[in-house]
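Hi C.,

You asked whether I'd gotten around to modeling the 222-residue construct. I have! Everything is below, sequence then structure, no commentary in between.
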Amino acid sequence: MKKYAVIVAGGNGSRMNASIPKQYLLLKGKPVLYYTLDVFLRSYNDIHIILVLPKEYLAEGEKIINDFFDVNRIQVISGGETRFHSVQNGLQLIKDESIVFVHDGVRCLLSTELIHRCYETALKFGSAIPVIDSKDSVRILKDDTNETIDRSLVKLVQTPQTFQSSILLPAFNTTYKNSFTDEATVIEAFGEKITLVQGEENNIKITNPIDLIIAEKILETK
């Protein structure tokens, strides 16, 4: 089965208080995006990456590819107005029956084991959504009140969200809705069920300045 990774890196770095998008910030001397691309390329020799970037930062992404990777394995395309539209743009380049990973470009610390787990699960069940348990107590707001819920029933969703192309491509042939917060919500709106797999605590999303410090410490332990 062919394999594609649609890596979406469209953030603008506003919460990082940075002059460049967070995917281009340096982490132990290399751009954050480098680590994301590297782990996917190491996961399978036959995987092809579709890298979705802001139009105004395409050149920076292409420089990372040229400096570190085999350019024949990575295709770059510009993103859209929202994450949904960016993923939609990337999926337009996929014509083959395949397994498709959709991953946040700034989740740069995932392992090849997680990628393999998602692949095998999606191959068998059609989808694979990595999740981890909530360590915190959780409360639900209801009108003017709030109430606690059993945190063992709460799962925190990660990426790569992974699907058979025969499910993912037609599901994204639709118009955007505000309820589409990730690929799983699009799949569910299409009428398909999703399958959860165990995610990883280290699979953090680089969003705030403290996350870069945490990521550096994680890399030092590997």
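If it helps when you're writing up: The two ends are 31 Å apart (CA to CA).

Thanks,
B.
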